[in-house]
User: Fold this.
Amino acid sequence: MIDIHSHLLNNVDDGSRNVIESFTCLKMAVEAGFTDIILTPHYIEGSFENSYELIQPKIEEFRTKLEDNNIAVNIYHGNEVYISEHIGELIQNGTVARLAGSRYVLFELPMNSRLLNLHNLIMQIKETGAIPVLAHPERYGFVQENPEVLRELIAKGVLMQSNYGSIMGQYGKSAQKTIITMLKSNMIHFLGTDTHRNGHIYAHFYKVRKEFLKYISREKFERLTTKNAKHILDDSLFEIEKPTEIKVKRGFFR
Assistant:
């Protein structure tokens, strides 16, 4: 399996606090069956400005330490980029890292407010030649209120990355209900752990897998955990399933 969203590069954001903590999580990841992990430290203007130039040497040092400690997992460089008016420029000039050096860019939104200019910012991303991947959409308030908004974003070329922990209730009942709806409606393209420190999802992955298989087939689970993410590592395109319409009353999920 391939994890495209993690915060296990130590001492750079609100994730892992030291290399021991990082290695503990990565050992759990290997035991759970992960072979490849993209390290995606936050890039937030004015806060965690983890630029490519700053982080790439740390990735190389981290990779060497992994080899020295016989931890058999492949790691790659990326960022989780907090949306801003300058996101197109940040991508174009190489300030932020695309996922594993590919055309795919992971970005996040404010948790509890909807951006009026979101579609313009998505156009900024696409104009750089990048493919936007939205991190954990099931956690955003405006999506929980009306998951149908994701169909429009997908139609505009945005791919969706949901967190494994959401289906276990890690982020609350609303996120849990929303990810289940997204699964049933073909609105998820990648799954990621978004692991920060304790590696909880890696440690209990058999329970997570069992929960997902209540709603999707084993073949689809493999696509969301491995096959689709392989296209990121290969920097290749793939066809997505057409999302289906969600017919619920507004506010149902809240």
Notes: The chain has ten helices and nine strands. The chain has one domain: 2-234. The domain at 2-234 is CATH 3.20.20.140 (TIM Barrel). The longest strand covers residues 104-108.
